[in-house]
Amino acid sequence: MVVAYRLGAMHTRFRALLPPMFGALLKRYPQAPLKEVGTFAPKGSDRSMGHALISDGTIKFNLYWFAQDPAVLAAAARTRPDMPLGNDTSLAFHGAMVDEPLHVVTHEFGHCLAVAHKGAEALSRQWWREACLNPGLAPAAYALVNPIEYWAELFAAFELQAHIGPHIDEMRVFLGK
Predict the structure, then answer these.
(1) What is the DSSP letter of 139?
(2) 25 Cβ contact partners less than 8 Å away, ≥ 6 residues apart
(3) What is the spatial distance between Cα 85 and Cα 105, in angstroms, rounded to a whole number?
């Protein structure tokens, strides 16, 4: 599959970093329907790193982060606070996944990959429900937002070897890895 990279507005170092990262993921998961990687200009105070438009195989990165030197995003990733979950427990926002942009590339790719796997949505919903009851299962606090984000964060944790647990083991089996 040929991916169109529309990264002209990105910092030059990001333009060099991202295609090889996606290339490595596509080599491992050629079934992912990724067609385009681009950017978007943030509206207002949008500080998200990126998003996947899975209906058309597009991943876009926020120019708030990706037009700046990569050191800015890297520093921000290491300073994300823990999120309180109640009962005196907390979980890091992106767990142990603080290597940016590798984490966000892998996370967004995970959204695309889920489309290629029948049953991924139902399985992710099951895992998410279990993790909502037992947050220690989650690879990151952000994974608890909804089943879609649970899949993407779990996939990133799996690929980056940043978390252990039964859901990682089940994802490995599900993906045949």
Answers:
(1) S
(2) 32, 105, 106, 109, 159
(3) 26
